[in-house]
Design brief:
By secondary structure, the chain is α/β, with parallel strands linked by helices. The chain has two domains: about 150 residues, Glycogen Phosphorylase B (Rossmann fold, 3-Layer(aba) Sandwich); about 160 residues, Glycogen Phosphorylase B (Rossmann fold), CATH 3.40.50.2000. About 35% of the residues lie in helices and about 15% in strands. It is built from eleven helices and twelve strands. The protein has a six-stranded parallel β-sheet with strand order 3-2-1-4-5-6, with helices on both faces. The chain has a six-stranded parallel β-sheet with strand order 9-8-7-10-11-12, with helices on both faces. Helix 9 links the parallel strand 10 and strand 11. The longest helix is centred in the first third of the chain and has 17 residues. It is elongated and about 60 Å long.
């Protein structure tokens, strides 16, 4: 059975798809799974062998797409039609994903109708319609329910996110022997998800005061790199920044050996869950924790609002609890 999953969303969304990919492989070991994602989100999937083929379409629309992007999409559609999929299922609930599914040539072209109603021309392109309401559940469960509308997965609940430890790669950082350390991930391109910089400094100092090294994880964006540099300067010895140089397998290795993870609602938080790393998760005022909280891993949820000092107090309490009573990592 050849199955195409389409998830044209962000990096964390791509990682979340690994759970339902594992469910499919458990139910149908001989199935062949292809996953179509946005270009630039594929690196976080290097630890998921359950996905047989990764297909990338145009990058997120930060800039206008060029003619060559559209040409590449046409080539991709031609490849899809040659593959002759048994199922093509859209998991992203957007027009581009629906178009790719509808034009894929799959025997069963499956779209969800529960929230974003299917209109013309997609009604003509699809031949299977699902109605699972994905709003009240975690996005892992949403993917699972969406697929199980069309394919019998032989189980009632989805499993964990997947990033195999064997695929993690030790980064070229001067880490203190032996581990563990604590990974904090303060950066995000979403302004509404950012926690106060001074709160990060105070929290980092608390961790270091217990003799634990702080590794500040930041992405390649210059603003994030600058944030990491400022935090390390304020924290002094006992801290280091990744400097935006790590790959996703590098970060997976750090998280595999970390005592725990502290971070905002980003792809790094979901990777921590995939590695079974206990997490203190910081959610801003308009982040929906019910949909995006760390999946199947011990976690403490801290909600914060702008100029909110109470969240720092709660975060310190959660960190002290994890330091003195480390939660047990789930078996993967």
């Amino acid at each position: 059975m050849r199955i195409l999953l389409v998830k044209l969303r962000h990096i964390g969304d791509s990682l979340i798809t690994t759970s339902v990919a594992q469910c499919i492989k458990d139910a149908y070991p001989d199935s062949e799974i292809s996953l179509m994602i946005r270009k630039g989100t594929e690196g976080i999937l290097h630890g998921c062998p359950q996905i047989d083929h990764l297909l990338t379409t145009a990058a997120p629309e930060q800039n206008r797409r060029l003619w060559k992007d559209r040409l590449n999409d046409l080539r991709l559609l031609r490849r899809l039609r040659r593959t002759r999929f048994d199922f093509a299922i859209d998991l992203g609930n957007n027009d581009r994903g629906r178009t790719m599914v509808g034009l894929s040539g799959a025997k069963q072209r499956c779209l969800n109708h529960s929230v974003y109603k299917i209109k013309w021309p997609w009604k003509l392109l699809a031949n299977q319609i699902g109605n699972s309401d994905w709003r009240p559940v975690h996005r892992v469960e949403a993917d699972y329910n969406n697929v199980s509308d069309f394919i019998d997965l032989g189980r009632t609940t989805p499993g964990p996110l997947i990033f195999q430890k064997e695929k993690a790669v030790r980064p070229a950082l001067e880490l203190p022997p032996p581990p563990p350390w604590v990974v904090i991930h303060p950066g995000t391109r979403w302004k509404r998800k950012q926690w106060d910089e001074n709160h990060w400094i105070e929290l980092g100092k608390l961790i270091i005061s217990h003799g634990i090294q702080v590794v500040v994880s930041v992405g390649p964006d210059p603003e994030e790199i600058g944030l990491g540099d400022r935090l390390v300067k304020a924290l002094g010895s006992g801290s280091l920044s990744t400097g935006g140089k790590l790959t996703w397998p590098n970060l997976a290795w750090l998280l595999c050996h970390a005592a725990f993870f502290v971070g905002v609602d980003t792809a790094a938080m979901h990777l921590a869950a995939a590695m079974g790393c206990p997490t203190v998760a910081l959610f801003g005022p308009d982040s929906n924790a019910n949909n995006w909280h760390p999946w199947q891993v011990p976690y403490e949820l801290i909600r914060f609002a702008p100029d909110d000092d109470h969240s720092l107090h709660k975060a310190k309490e959660a960190v002290r609890q994890y330091i003195h009573h480390p939660p047990k990592r789930p078996q993967r």
